[in-house]
Amino acid sequence: MTGTLHITGDAAADELLSTSPLALLLGMLLDQQVAMETAFSGPAKIRDRMGGLDAAAIADDDPSGFAKLCATPPAVHRFPGSMAARIQAVCRAIVADWGGDAAAIWTEGDPDGAEVLKRLRTLPGFGDQKARIFLALLGKQYGYDGAGWRETAGDYGDEGSYRSVADIVDEASLTRVRENKRAAKAAAKGAR
After folding, report:
1. Could you tell me the pTM of the whole model?
2. For 128, which of 25, 99, 121, 122 is 20 to 30 Å away at the CA?
3. In this predicted structure, what is the pLDDT of residue 56?
4. Are 40 and 8 in contact (CB under 8 A)?
5. Which CATH number do you get for residue 165?
6. Which tens digit of pLDDT belongs to each residue from 165-184?
7. CB atoms < 10 A from the CB of 138, how many?
8. Which of these, 119, 192, 112, 96, lies nearest to 151 by C-alpha position?
């Protein structure tokens, strides 16, 4: 980790993201159909409600109870039930495949960028784009320096691209990322 992340606007949530690989991974999982700040604040809500953030504890929790925990206002996500199931599925995969250590996905065996991308894609809810964005986040802000990570992350790995959460380091960069996302959506809509 290269310093404290500044994604959520909440110091405690950002500190958790900065110190807990599981929190960062779950924040990325939640980053769909909600504002980035909401998605990446989700792990702190889970930690506060469970008294800790542990992949095995989440994986083993009663699904209906965990869904209620995620739905408790303020909800972890706008779709708390379906996202609770995804969170538990990711945690089960981390326990089964990585001994409960989310960081092992990008540290075990000193993997290069292509291998980390491959590992991320096996996680429930991590398609190609989400996996590339997360790889860029690891490389740009989390201290991951595996060979070829920038190339493997594609456009998200470009320095100063302001395409995703990987580029957010302050309020100004958050604004630039939002502007680029709006422009990309408008261009895609115009191309239809």
Report:
1. 0.95
2. 99
3. 98
4. yes
5. 1.10.340.30
6. 999 999 899 999 999 988 88
7. 28
8. 112
